[in-house]
Amino acid sequence: MYTLFFQHLNSKVQLTEEEQAHIKTYLTLKKIRKKQYLLQEGDVCKVIAFVEKGALRAYSVDDNSNEHIIQFALEGWTISDLYSFLTGDPATYNIDALEDSELVLISKSAHEELLQTMPKYETFTRLNITGAYLAMQRRLTSIKSSTAEERYQDFIALYPHIAQRVPQHMIASYMGLTPETLSRVRKRISSK
Q: Where is each Cyclic nucleotide-binding domain found (predicted)?
């Protein structure tokens, strides 16, 4: 079950068989069912999850019970409430499964120990965090400077697999739109 995890890791830093075996001792496997929580708002996030199979989302819920999705994670992606994980503060996000999912988890203590003892793991972590930061910056720039049509077309181009597996109302939430607005955007795009 660690196949995709180590493919992802080796795409950023090359590991020997011994290094992979060593890292594997720090990992745990978890299966969660569709709609099952990995994390609930208010709990402290104790793991970073790598998706081997399935799909998850991270989101907050406002005072009017509206969901605001901040991240999707499909196979090959990681998901966590990183702020809570790093600080030990209560999570501000919920994370649940959109499909039955198989996850590779790394705990805070395991993560810290690997950072201290394995330079390749530290490099891998730095590259992942850098990539996540760049994606967040690109998303914020898009929200501020692109039309809804441009944002949707960019989303479809960047994440075609998400668009095929996630309901449109969730994509609308991720984009900061109402489902009705997204429907109009899709209609305008298809009529061009």
A: 5-115
